[in-house]
Amino acid sequence: MIKSSITDSPRNISKGEKDNFGIEPFENGLTKFINNSNTPITIALQGEWGSGKTSLMNSLKRNLSDLEESKYHSIWLNTWEYALMKDAQSTLIDIITGLIQETSKIAKVDETKINKLLNTLWSGVKETSKVVAKNALNKGFDGAGEIVNTFSSNGKSSIGEIRNELEVIIENCIIKDNKQGFIFFIDDLDRIDPPVAVQLLELLKNIFTLNNCVFILAIDYDVVIKGLEPKFGKLSESNEREFRSFFDKIIQVPFSMPVSGYETDKFLKESLLSTNYLDVESSNNIDLISKFSEISNLSVGKNPRALKRLMNSLSLISCINSAKNQTDENDQLNSELELLVNFALVSIQIAYPPVYRLLSLYAGFDKWNENIALQMNLKPLDQQSIEKLNKTEEFDEEWEKVLFRLCENDFYLKKRALNISRLLNSLKETITNSKEEIEDVIGAVISLSSVTNLEAFDKPVVDYHRGCLLKEIRERLFPVLKNKLPDQEISQIGKKVVTNLNFHLSQDVQFKFTSFPKDGKINLYMNTNVWYGNDIGDFRKDLKDHNLFSEFETIVNEYDAHFKTESSIITHNLFDVGEWKYKKINHFHVNFHSDLLLPKPEDFYTEDSIEKISEHIIKLSEFRSRVQEISNKRNSK
């Protein structure tokens, strides 16, 4: 049965849920280790958010305590539930109370004895609170931390009494029930306030370090670090040992979730098939699934929760696309290439939002250049950095250097810059091998993924069809241009208009239109360029060497003066010089580009807008011709 989403609930082995990540050997190894361990012992399942800690604990619980032949009684405690709407002190005391009550319930302890045990706990806390309150008049204190420290020092008799009573209760229970001990599963420690999590660890150490007891904690070591900062300060080389010593004192066996070793191919295949993103034939394409796996590994990684979020985003996009019931083939994911590109774009959207944002503005990432970098306010590279990057496979091309500069602006992206470059290069290879233009493919697909984009403080994005916008402009613009330029053969280049409208103004003059959302409006980007030459080290020096510098500067000044004085809704940038690498040869082009920013598609279709666009195109063509003359002079020498 086709399902539209993948549940983010932890895996429940008792319900027959499959191991899709190849973690079963680790489950079996931990089960064997715990069954043969001396007690007391505390095991920490360490891992980041969504790495599968709860799923692993579910499996351990089934293997160690839920089966008929199991050796342990078990208690599962979700610390998050105890922490809701409570202060730190109440959270800690309620958790310890809950553990005592659950233990007594399994051991079938008389209610009178349970109440006596809890009264001992609460009396100790009450006396401790008085000491804390008194001290608080003279000095600051950190709430739960002060409670625990004072309780541990002033309430030793209370702690000793509670521990002795619990040890007797547990020992009598396991003898009576022919068990080996009790296992306490403490979940969601990384969802409560870090200082409270650390104080809870200390309380458990003081009260529940008992014979016949195993504690299994789901925790992220980063939570411990944050929780210890009030005590030790920010983590540094000088105090790192203090942080580690605390952890080692509480935890006897650390187990890191083996996320890097997760086998994701099987999960991806089954998820893409079950959500109807792929059909059966495509899901059996080993090379295709391998490509999906490569993309996910370089973006969201192998974190199960991140992978499930990716699957659900893809499924949502498929549902919306299907519900639109569009007939235009440009709005459908019709090929395995488009499915793969969409998968990559959603992965980038989730893992690297700034990169996705840049792709949504400039889909042809293989042509990112200095002009793009300037528009994004990216910090320029010094010569030493450029030389260093030129020696690397991942950042030797111009577009890769723009990507590098984007990553340098963000701490998270900076650490993952190599993965991002490898991902885009893999995408580039896949698209070009299919004999498609990167800009056309990315631009055609990326609008589908925008519905799942979540970026804080974004201005509203105009919902419009890029292909329809360009087609409508073409239908209105071409007759006007032909009327104004009767001697020119104005014609579209290519059969389809998807994300770009390419056309000849004359046999040798080519223009390109594209569009993208910008600042809550629609930006029409108009561009033409002139090839200047190749194997050039320095553009300005080359002009001087060919005695063309003065002529080129005159054109630049006249271009600037004309468009600065012209009153128009079209904005203009000084034309720039772009360097593109093709077959390891540098090619220099002089680029002319302009932008028309309007609120909605209909605004582009008015007679006034079309008139201004046509006049602007003709003027750009005149300046282009003058630069073409310079190029001809340079290359004829």
Automatic annotation (TrEMBL):
<feature type="compositionally biased region" description="Polar residues">
    <location>
        <begin position="1"/>
        <end position="12"/>
    </location>
</feature>
<feature type="domain" description="KAP NTPase">
    <location>
        <begin position="25"/>
        <end position="317"/>
    </location>
</feature>
<protein>
    <recommendedName>
        <fullName>KAP NTPase domain-containing protein</fullName>
    </recommendedName>
</protein>
<feature type="region of interest" description="Disordered">
    <location>
        <begin position="1"/>
        <end position="20"/>
    </location>
</feature>
<dbReference type="InterPro" id="IPR011646">
    <property type="entry name" value="KAP_P-loop"/>
</dbReference>
<dbReference type="InterPro" id="IPR052754">
    <property type="entry name" value="NTPase_KAP_P-loop"/>
</dbReference>
<dbReference type="Pfam" id="PF07693">
    <property type="entry name" value="KAP_NTPase"/>
</dbReference>
<dbReference type="InterPro" id="IPR027417">
    <property type="entry name" value="P-loop_NTPase"/>
</dbReference>
